[in-house]
Each structure stands twice: as structure tokens, then as C-alpha cells.
Specification:
There is one protein chain. 50% of the residues lie in helices and 13% in strands. The protein is of the alpha/beta class and 622 residues long. The strands form 4 sheets. Strands 8, 9, 10, 11, 12, 13, 14, 15, 18 and 19 form a 10-stranded parallel β-sheet that branches. It is globular.
């Protein structure tokens, strides 16, 4: 009976889990996990290991007391909004903790399908607070882990407490070790993503609008393949070893034996040393991104080409006076919507990622470069320095501080020894290694002295690279000029897009007002007993929200400006959907949608002036 009831709950709440359970039902009959009665009378679970020893997932004597003792030892549970249980077992610890925190969200993850069948047979899912149960994950193969964890990570924006049943750590040691490592990596990356979204979600859209006229008046860097295909590139970053290689970079520049691309603040070190890069690249959306070029601009040395991301801080594009080319960044929904070439083809898009070095590597790969040499890409500390000599950031010290030492990680360096690094640098290294793994036809050489080892990028000192691989001139100093026959964006297509967006904007403005009025009506009706009118108003609100979420202007501009809010709403939407009490449902609608509608109206006010200015310029043909 318990099993049948549980399956019914799964079918309603988690149909994919229900299907998986039914598809693998044969496992329940041959599972090695044996139900036994504990001395107290509650069921416990045993399994015979390969060495014939019988081990228990729960106490043989009193599994309930054991679970209560375990959860009482968990620390700082009040500080977390979400509990992630690795290892369901028979659920004693889950029931004990959720009894203490019935309002907290929680997720269940079971790496052994056979154990989950035993759970379904012995304990009702109704013993847990159903509305707070965000998800159930069942692992059937080791390949599932990363996929399931990525799915979980995309569904949460809360502080998560990882809780593993001690018996799982012992009995399934290898599985647990691999899982906990992946959990830390994926959740850490998710936190970084949320932090980035929080910092830049509005700037990405506003920058894209402010930069639009410069985008359509400059050439896309991806159309310059004829200059870079099969050519070597020196990719210069601002790591502390950069100063050691400045004489070699100057030699390369003088001979023209490779193109020199600067990323981040490295441009300041190069210019100070008298080395003018063949291009500097910029993509950071922050208003502080101008600080990288501020001194160069003030000194009138901004004469080299700038390759700017379409969503870069617009202050950079406005103030930089030298030649410019652009790259369309994946965060720029506006450019992707509006731009087509005159021949009807779609311009290439570069994926936004954690570092300008990775963004630039994508560009170079798309340009067909033969090989790229990384210089100053330390991704680690060197001689107590974080960045090259002379580089200063307002948000981080250029020298290693005591707090940096305390939180430092140790990784392998290019010489086979050890080097200290930060969590942020290490994440960048891992992302770069992952990118390099997928390359086909472009070689990455790491010439960064004393830097962290980057798998897939062989360490070869720059002196040796010059002697063996950079023997002839390849640089065309006028590569950045736009020839008469260069591909241009279709102005008629752009005008058509602006006309559609202008019409959508009017409809969106009207629907936002209607949505706001509907919420006010719900607020007033909630004070009455008129449940029928409440239901009708909710239905009307649903129709308005459907029109809003299908609106083109909303999709291009406003939705990207409220990424975190929409993610939070997606987490709470099931609470609204499954709430049967109409008054509670109304309260949830007002709470979760009220702030969102208010924010969307403010976003529209931010976007409007820049959009209208662009629209006038485009439609007037200026």
C-alpha cells in the first residue's frame, strides 16, 4: 500500500522519476539491499559487500534515534535555505531534519536505485513536506552525475547545505568522493554565474543598446579570416610573469613574426614598454571597464585597433578614438535579433565566458589561427605578485595579501612543481582546459613562466617559440581597415526589426499597466469572501502574463534584465500551481509577481530613452 501511494505521488509530482522507477522495476526484485527489522521495530537496511561482510545503512538497534542524533550534529542549518540530501536510505534523517525545518526547501539524491525501491516500500513520501520538496534525482549510471547536478544547479539560487548520510560515505566511498567533488565544482560555478548575473544583468542590455550604432558602423572581427588564417598569435595577459617576456614580445613586434593581441590590463604594460599591440580586446560589461584604457586614452596613445564585445561597458567604445572592430557577444540578444548581412547570412556569435582570454581564444579559433602562444597567463601567484608590475586594480590587490595566502589553493606549475593560486584563477584555468579539449586544428602553447600548468597547452618558453616557430614576417599592419567589398549589415532588415520592436514596446507598456492593475484588484478582493471573482481575476492575470512573456520587446530587453528574478520565480511557481486554497494562491501571486511587474516597469523606463534614440537614428536613415 505504501509503495502504491508513493508511486501515485511520484506520477503527479515527478512524472520523469515515476517513469524511471517503472522502467527499471526489475531491479527491485534483484536488489542486494535487504530490509530487516531493527531491535526497536523500525525497518533498517543491510547489504552484503564483495568481501561477504554485511553492512548496515542504518542502525540495527534504533535507526530513528540514530537519525535524530545525526541531524542534531549538523552545523549552521539555520543559515541555509535549501537542503540537498545525498543518499536517501530509508529517509530517517530526512524526516528528522524536515520536522525541524518544515518551511525549508529540500532536494533528494539517491545514487543507488535499489535503495530507492526499498524506501518506497517502507516510508510514505507524505511524511515529508511535499510543497518544499523541490526535486528527486536518481542515478542509474556514473554518467548521470554531472547531468543531474547541472540540472539541480540551474534550478536554485539559494544557499544550499550538502548533507550526506555517513553510511553512504563509507559503503559507496568512490561514488561519494566523485560526486562531492563534482557537487563542489558545479555549485561553485553556479554561484559565480549568479554573482555575474546579479552584477551585469542590466548592463548587458543597456550596453548592447548604447553600443549598437558603433556595432553597425564597424566591421565584425570574424570577417577578417583572410588575415589570420594559419597565422601565429601572441595572446598577452596581465599575469606577473609578463615583465620577464617583454623583450621577447618587443622582438616579435619588430619582426612582425606574429600578431600580438592584448587582453585585459596587459595593454598598459605593453604600451608603457613601447610595444603597440596589433589589437586590444575588451568585453567586460562593467562601468569600470573604461579604467583599463583610461590612461592610454588620456595620453593620446589609443591608436591601435580595439576589438570590443557588443555588450562591453559602453564607456570604452565611446571614449576610445582608435580604429574599432566588434564581436557579437552571446549576452547581446538585441544584436542577434537585429543583425543580418546583406546576403541574408547570420553573423557569428562569441559565447560570453569568465575571462577575456577565453573570449579572445574563441575569436582566434573562429578565424582559423594556426597556433596561439599564451604569455602572462599565470592563473597563479608569482613572487608574491598577482598581476604584472605596474598594473593596479581598484577591486583587488596586485600583491598577495594575508587573506589571499590563507585561502590559496596549490596546483601544479609549468615546471612540474607547485604554485599557489586563488579559487577564481583556478576556475578560469579549468574553463580554459575544457575549452582547449574541444579544439580541432589550433594548437595552444603556454609560454607563461612560473604559471599554473594548463592541460592541453604545452609549456615552451617564448625564446624557444621564437627560435623554432616564428621565423618569418606574417603581420599585415593594415589588417584592421575595412575594404570596399567588406560584408555589411542589411539596413532594411534592421529597420524592419526596429518597426516590430516599436510596436511590441507599445503593447508591452499597456500590458504591464494591466498586470499591475490586476494585482491591485487581487489585493482588494483578497479582503473579501468573493472567491469566484478572485478566480476570474487570477485567470485574467494569467492571460496578461502570457501576452507579456510572448512579447518580442520583453524577450529582447526586459527578460535578460531580470534573469535572477525569473529564476527565483521558476522555483516558486510550483507552489502557486499546486496551492488549492484560493486566498493563499492569491497571496503567493501578489508576493511573487508584484515585485517582478514593478521591476519590469522600471527596466522599461531605463531602456526606453536609448531604444527610442536608436530607433530614430535607424528609421531616419542617419
Amino acid at each position: 500500500m505504501i509503495r502504491a501511494d508513493n508511486l501515485e505521488i511520484l506520477n503527479i509530482r515527478f512524472p520523469m522519476i515515476y517513469k524511471l522507477v517503472k522502467d527499471h522495476e526489475a531491479i527491485s526484485y534483484r536488489t542486494p539491499y535487504v530490509l530487516e527489522k531493527s531491535r526497536r521495530g523500525d525497518p533498517t537496511l543491510s547489504v552484503r559487500r564483495e568481501d561477504d561482510e554485511t553492512v548496515y545503512l542504518h542502525s540495527k538497534y534504533d535507526p530513528v534515534q540514530e537519525a535524530e542524533r545525526f541531524v542534531s550534529q549538523l552545523q549552521d542549518t539555520n543559515e541555509y535555505e535549501h537542503f540537498f540530501f545525498y543518499g536517501i536510505g530509508l529517509g530517517y534523517h530526512i524526516q528528522a531534519l524536515m520536522k525541524m525545518y518544515p518551511q525549508k526547501r529540500f532536494t533528494l539524491y539517491e545514487p543507488e536505485l535499489g535503495i530507492f525501491y526499498r524506501y518506497l516500500e517502507t516510508h510514505s513520501l507524505n511524511n515529508l513536506p511535499q510543497k518544499q520538496l523541490s526535486g528527486i534525482y536518481l542515478e542509474t549510471t556514473s554518467d548521470d552525475r554531472r547531468r543531474l547536478l547541472n540540472d539541480f544547479a540551474q534550478r536554485i539560487n539559494e544557499r544550499v547545505l550538502f548533507i550526506s548520510l555517513p553510511s553512504y560515505e563509507r559503503i559507496f566511498y568512490s561514488k561519494f568522493k566523485d560526486f562531492s567533488k563534482k557537487f563542489t565544482q558545479i555549485i561553485s560555478a553556479r554561484k559565480m554565474e549568479l554573482n555575474v548575473n546579479s552584477a551585469f544583468e542590466k548592463r548587458w542590455t543597456l550596453n548592447s543598446l548604447y553600443n549598437f550604432q558603433n556595432v553597425i558602423c564597424t566591421q565584425n572581427i570574424l570577417e577578417k579570416m583572410e588575415y589570420f588564417a594559419n597565422c601565429p598569435i601572441i595572446l598577452v595577459s596581465a599575469g606577473p610573469s609578463l615583465n620577464q617576456d617583454l623583450p621577447r614580445i618587443a622582438e616579435i613586434k619588430e619582426k612582425g613574426s606574429a600578431y600580438i593581441f592584448s587582453v585585459g590590463s596587459a595593454v598598459n604594460t605593453l604600451v608603457k614598454y613601447g610595444i603597440i599591440p596589433d589589437a586590444a580586446c575588451a568585453y567586460v560589461p562593467s562601468h569600470t571597464s573604461i579604467n583599463v584604457f583610461k590612461q592610454i586614452i588620456e595620453d593620446g596613445q589609443d591608436t591601435f585597433p580595439l576589438i570590443f564585445g557588443s555588450s562591453v561597458g559602453y564607456e570604452v567604445v565611446r571614449r576610445f578614438k582608435g580604429p574599432k572592430l566588434h564581436m557579437i557577444i552571446s549576452q547581446d540578444a538585441f544584436a542577434q535579433y537585429c543583425l543580418r548581412y546583406s546576403d541574408g547570412t547570420v553573423p557569428g556569435v562569441i559565447n560570453d565566458t569568465s575571462t577575456i582570454a577565453l573570449v579572445t581564444l574563441q575569436v582566434l579559433y573562429r578565424l582559423g589561427c594556426k597556433f596561439v602562444v599564451l604569455v602572462g597567463q599565470n592563473l597563479a601567484y608569482l613572487n608574491e605578485m598577482v598581476y604584472a608590475d605596474g598594473i593596479r586594480y581598484s577591486h583587488i590587490s596586485s600583491v598577495v595579501t594575508e587573506s589571499m595566502r590563507e585561502t590559496a589553493l596549490t596546483v601544479e606549475d609549468v615546471y612540474g612543481g607547485q604554485v599557489n593560486t586563488s579559487k577564481s584563477f583556478n576556475n578560469m584555468r579549468l574553463q580554459m582546459e575544457n575549452f582547449i579539449k574541444g579544439l580541432n586544428g589550433m594548437t595552444i602553447i603556454n609560454s607563461t613562466k612560473g604559471g599554473a600548468k594548463i592541460r592541453g597547452a604545452e609549456f615552451i618558453p617564448l625564446e624557444e617559440v621564437i627560435a623554432t616557430r616564428l621565423r618569418e614576417k606574417v603581420v599585415d599592419s593594415k589588417w584592421y581597415l575595412s575594404p570596399d567589398g567588406a560584408k555589411r549589415y542589411d539596413r532594411n532588415y534592421i529597420m524592419g526589426c526596429f518597426k516590430r520592436l516599436s510596436q511590441s514596446r507599445i503593447k508591452l507598456e499597456d500590458d504591464l499597466k494591466k498586470a499591475n492593475n490586476a494585482l491591485k484588484t487581487l489585493e482588494e478582493l483578497s479582503k473579501t469572501q468573493n472567491e469566484k471573482q478572485l478566480e476570474l481575476t487570477i485567470q485574467s492575470f494569467d492571460r496578461i502574463m502570457k501576452r507579456i512573456t510572448e512579447n518580442e520587446f520583453y524577450h529582447i530587453f526586459l527578460m535578460p534584465m531580470e534573469r535572477i528574478a525569473f529564476e527565483f520565480l521558476s522555483i516558486n511557481i510550483s507552489d502557486i500551481r499546486f496551492e488549492t486554497d484560493i486566498k493563499k494562491k492569491v497571496r503567493l501571486v501578489i508576493v511573487h509577481f508584484g515585485k517582478l511587474i514593478s521591476n519590469l516597469k522600471k527596466d522599461l523606463e531605463l531602456v526606453d530613452p536609448v531604444f527610442m534614440s536608436n530607433s530614430k537614428t535607424v528609421l531616419d536613415g542617419v
